[in-house]
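Tutorial, part two.
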Amino acid sequence: MKKLLLTAMLLAASVGLANAQTAQRQVVEGGGTGPFKSEVVGDASCPRFTVYRPQNLKEVVAKQGKLPVIVYANGACYDNNVEMRLLLSEVASYGYVVAAIGAYDEEDVMATWREVLLFNYPETKGEVIMANGEKIERLTEEQLKALYEQQLKEREEAVKKEKKSEEQEAPPSSIFTTYPRMLLEVLDWLTDQNAISDSEYYHCLDLDHVAAMGQSCGGAQVLGVAHDPRIKTCVMLNSGIGDMSMMGSTVETLEDLHQPMFYMIGGPSDIAYENAQLDYERIADNIPVVMLNSKDGHNGTYYEKYGGNYAKAVVKWMDWQLKGREEQSAMFLDDEYLKKVFPEWQGVRKNF
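Running the prediction step on this input gives:
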């Protein structure tokens, strides 16, 4: 009897640990411009991911119904989603639960973007204004050289320190700390949470409407899991596989697609431009695909207020594909509408 009781207690404890346990939360840019103010959440039961969601989930579900889900992979296949915090928070404010690879982090979003933009100043922009109103000036060659030398020195010092540590005999780790399967793992976690009666997500998620989205290298991770039948649409931000092999994805991976695809590319100055064009040409004739090209380069508009125009495009695509709002399709199917709303953007589509 005691053995049975102990077993029951251990089982209860393990189930309890599996339940969603919000450990940290923050609100970015006032919660976004959507009808449901969003928040950024770190969950103790899902430590390698960050969740972007509307505040007061139960109230939002009561108003609009269960929330579609988006799983997101980062640029550089990085284990941190701070760079996309403005866009992901904005998307969540329109009634989505977004689970992003990378543990919850309160790093300064603008400080992160400042460093990115200093080293990768968008060639297509005369000036760069960040969401906090700060203007980023293009660095001179001398300033860039000084920064690179500083980084090189810091790297050399870090290497020397590492050699002195006890870890020097450990095998070298991969530069990538994430993998495509993580997108499905967090989807599995959300699926479990949706079924656990005392979970924050209980009966809040519309798991029949799931999207996978990734930026740059994260797009390769999206292609790596796009075969999963639960994923109803994919969004490729500044990304394309082309003739590359990355994260296990190759040109053959395009043959596994079964859902509508949206490529949001930054024009010819975007390093992903050529690969995205090749993907568009190669995607099978039974797969609907839209490609929009702006003139924002590889950094898109993610550092702008509320994620800029890229966030607007993502919201419209998700509303159309995951919520069935046909009126949101105009940006993707109507050239006149696109020219009116974003005159510098160009769009192509096939198989609709």
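The two ends are 64 Å apart (CA to CA). In part three we will examine how such features are distributed along the chain.
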